[in-house]
Amino acid sequence: MPILELDNLSKTYGGTTALRGLTLQVEPGSVYGLLGPNGSGKTTTLGIALGVLRASGGTVRWFGQPPTAAGRRRIGALLETPNFFPYLSARQNLQLAADIKRADPRSVDQALDTVGLGTRQHDAFRGFSLGMKQRLALASTLLGNPEVLVLDEPTNGLDPQGIAEVRGLVQRLASEGKTIILASHLLDEIEKVCTHVAVLQRGELRAAGPVGNILATADRVLLRPEPQAAAAVQQALAALPWVSDVRPEPDGQLSAALAPGHGPADLNRALFAQNIALAGLELRRRSLEAQFLELTK
Ligand SMILES: Nc1ncnc2c1ncn2[C@@H]1O[C@H](COP(=O)(O)OP(=O)(O)OP(=O)(O)O)[C@@H](O)[C@H]1O
């Protein structure tokens, strides 16, 4: 049974149509990404799913039935940054949040441990880095040990270190069996943490399915042949069935597409087997970005 089913959801705000007939299902254990540029309707979708916004049409089902208060307690959500008290400690802030949610107070310890703030639990919130603040926000979604997490742009505004922390945490929670629904405008983020993706554009679903099916395109590699070997390299590439679309690049370099399942190491080996040593070989994933742009054009 799907965790979440959205059927033909629509939403208009006055004259603005934010969602048009959105249908999707989230299966248990998946990390489901809603991917789309700003304004594509991701926050609206999550808001309707969580019952904080009213749909103009369509239905929401959680755990196989229309939304109920009991079902809602099985979901932890982070739609906007919670207001933590700056002078209270991480632990005190979570205890307050647990009180408000009527979550089991024992889940505070577990949440602190899970997000890696156990050793900093008595420090005041105001001294925390942005990454730690966001991890505390994630901890608050874990109160009551929900089986589903709904996160809107969980890495927004973080520095690279904070982004890595939060992504690592999402992956760990998923590996522990939680179903995670996550909105992001970052292709790279969806690719790194999600198993499934729905691509939204101007409130419409453009594509949905396993990340590998939707976003996987041939990787491109950039090769630098030694000048005297340029022709031999071209010839060798032409003979490899899993190499296509060979193009000249500046400075005597070449780029080529590799079929799925083949990487730069395979290419290196294949050329070396023909006595060709490259002066340079680099993976380029521009094609993925291009595919996303194509989907949302
Ligand atoms: N309260 C509102 N009143 C009027 N229009 C709104 C409101 N909330 C959202 N919209 C409009 O609905 C559309 C979808 O917005 P939404 O916030 O769901 O997109 P999003 O993909 O989450 O983008 P972002 O990442 O920028 O929040 C946009 O055109 C937005 O301007």
Automatic annotation (TrEMBL):
Keyword Methyltransferase carried by entry: no
UniProt-recorded Gene Ontology molecular function terms: ATP binding
* Keyword annotations of the record: ATP-binding, Nucleotide-binding, Transport
Q: Where is the ABC transporter domain positioned along the sequence?
A: 4-227
One Pfam family name is ABC_tran
SUPFAM superfamilies given for it? P-loop containing nucleoside triphosphate hydrolases
This protein is called what? Answer: ABC transporter ATP-binding protein
